Amino acid sequence: MMPRLSDPGGLRPLAARWTIETDLVLESAAHLGGGSGDAADMVLLRDARVGAPLLPGTSTVGALRSHLADVLDGYRTNEDPQVAGLFGGARGDDLGRQSPLVVFDSIGVLPERHSVEIRDGVQLDTARGTAEDHKKFDLEVLPAGTRFPLRFDLLVPAADGEAELLSLLVTALSGLSSGDIALGARRSRGLGIARAATWSAVRHSLTSRAGWMDWLLSDHTGPIARGVAGAPDAAKACKDASPDLVLQQYDDRRRRVIAEVELCLKGALLVRSAPLSSDAPDAAHLQSAGRSVLPGTSLVGVLRSQALRVACITRQNHGDAERWIARLFGPRMADTTRPESAALHASRLRVAEAVIEDGTRMRPTRVRIDRFTHGVVPGALFDEEIEQVGRTRVRMELRDPRPGELGLFVLVLKDLLSGDVAVGGTAAVGRGVVDGSATLRLVDGREVLLDPARPVDPSIDRAIEELWGSPVVGGVT
Predict the structure, then answer these.
(1) Strand 376-388 and strand 283-284: pairing?
(2) pLDDT (tens digit per residue) in 102-112
(3) Whole-prediction pTM
């Protein structure tokens, strides 16, 4: 129920007002959607006054609320009542209380010498390995390095509940410091990864005339003075602003397996991107903010296709391979005739977009040969700009793994690390082959090394769950 309004005047009682600020910087491209438009099928949301990219406070609040609920109770569980205490009533709760948290819209600042990018999207036919008809689209994305200044105001109604409210807010904001919160569309495919490095906070006591005057005379557009020292996280910033305040620590109840995958390109890599100039090659490898990247969409597509092949073999007698894949990677579309895809849900395997280091851009020219005359096909001369060799580090996260799913993920990851599956386009001419190793941090905190080039550690079988009744031999075979 809503708290009773104080007398006289019918105003909500306030004991204190906190302001917390930070700069959120995109570590990967992001699509903060604004519908369809002429520039692309999916365009960015922009501020109507200045035309700059806009991050609505509603989007920020939704991401923070989801992160806090996951930390307090785990993935895909009923929301803890404490979440509503900070963020207000949930959708459909007509009697829910008003949120004491105010989150402001933020206008983005693009990195110097970089602009909005266009990306192509396509859905592949897993049987043929080619694009499905009428399933190609393009979308606008913000480049990595785009900065959003964020401001959060917490209105504390009573002094005895201040520590709890602030503790919940700090726990939610911690996801911005750790990079666990992604913004916008296609988050499970590596877009929207962001991180905040420097925080500042100020507290205004509203229980005295002096405190009210201090707040009223402050700059309403920036109540935190420039001389306030920054802190590495929101908790430290709040402690600096109010040293006597004791913040509560909450146990992280998220069940997840995190894989840090080190990949080396054995040759060329080509993930096609939209041409941006008249002198651009016919096909060029994808870049974001001027740096070559390995997109999560390409990696997930490869992993999904290989996982389906493995599941079709191991689950042949059960006939439920596609259900396993839809449960892990998310259904491709809502099809009420198939129980495994009747309800849409996000992928529980999240793959981040990664920057390719130490690579070389090359622009070879290719021709198409007539197989009857062995001559060049007229008009079939084209050039490509590929990424040659290089290395990258990819973060993968398997959320709330169910029995058997970790084993399936390990088998597919082994095929990637062994170079048995190719990433990107033109794989038929030898491109997209990678190898490497991975470190898995399991749900219980133990770490397991997967490296096809090293002897198998017998303890891996005990650390990784059985795959449908059969142990994963060495975790990698």
Answers:
(1) parallel
(2) 999 999 999 99
(3) 0.86
